[in-house]
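User: I'm writing a short methods note and want a consistent example. For Orotidine 5'-phosphate decarboxylase, I'll paste the sequence; you return only the structure tokens, no commentary, since I'll be parsing the reply automatically.
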Amino acid sequence: MADDRLIVALDVSTMDAVKEIVLSLGDSVSFYKVGMELFYAEGAKTIRFLQEQNKQIFLDLKLHDIPNTVAHGVSSLTRLGASLITLHGQGGPVMMKAAVEAARESGETLGVERPKLLAITALTSFDDESWTAIGGQLPISDQVIRLAKLAKECGMDGVVCSALEAKMIREACGDDFLIVTPGIRPSFAATNDQKRIATPASALQDGASRLVIGRPITQAENPREAVRLIIEEMENVSK
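Assistant:
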């Protein structure tokens, strides 16, 4: 039943909550996101537990620092075995290139497949008003495309972006570029605090590679049924 284009966000802060979600969803979900809230609270044991359950892991820590620090961070995280790791594209080309090289070298040294690196473009909580408030000179969509192209030039594997920019990024960066989209809300779910959102089917049609969905599943009355409905929406779009 699982579709690895679906990543369920574990936006919780305890291992008990993680185990409840993962074990209840069982084989219906194969890919999970571990973000700051969970990783800062419980650390690497969250990754080990998911690996024991034969799940793929999207480690969403949004690294953003000087190039040397980010490179060392990526080297350390590569040892954990996550499939995807995020860093902020606004850290610039030197930082992204350093991260790419660190992932490659660490993978070779450890004899493991290196994690794929994704650049954060603009957070999906931004709307035009809040974007202007932090000094955004270009429209959000223009900045997202600019950062996506830069990430590809630096050897990054893809980006995290709003589904509303997915089509433009797919056209600008090609078929092999990963596009991971949060802010996905299936037809039965509330939008919560996300501003730039899309349904699963529309996001995939516009070029998204993987979809990150949290609350519509984890806070649903029947999470497994919510997954089934989402996958049903996704099945109309061929892989």
